[in-house]
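Exam prep: given the inputs below (a chain plus copper (II) ion), describe the expected output before reading on.
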Amino acid sequence: MTSTRRAGPARPLLIAALLILAAALAAALLRPRDTATQTPAQASQASGTLPATVTDARVVAVPPGIRETSVFATLRSTWDADVRITGVSSPAAGHAMLMVTRTQDNMTGMSMTDTLTLPAGGTLTLSDTGDHLMLMDLKEPLQPGQTIPITLTDAEGRTLTIQAPVMKP
Ligand SMILES: [Cu+2]
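Solution:
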């Protein structure tokens, strides 16, 4: 009986601790769902910057007379949901496009796409053999040593401007 009495005062503390633990667990489990159900307006209020870091960005140098070129980079997500990139632009180009490279019937070709997806917490590699960006209607030839600003926009209106050096292919 003495042992029961001793345990008595400890029990409310134990229950309180379990409740706190349960609440923390519930919050952790619900968080990704909250993010997924955010409206675009809320998401862009939370951050106006497309949640990614960029390395190895480069624009392929082209000789005078060539009016289009490719842009490559590695994008790493800093977000716990997929980021759908839906737009690209650059002051160096009349317009720019999101591109995919696909092989079908032993033919490899590239085509425009509406969306490139940066997976949640993952990587999107833009390369000459895969997904990439293209700058069209170049306003002037791009020489190695120049740096070209390129702005990506996602489906939620967030933007990220990359300063991409021009490099020889
Ligand atoms: Cu291309």
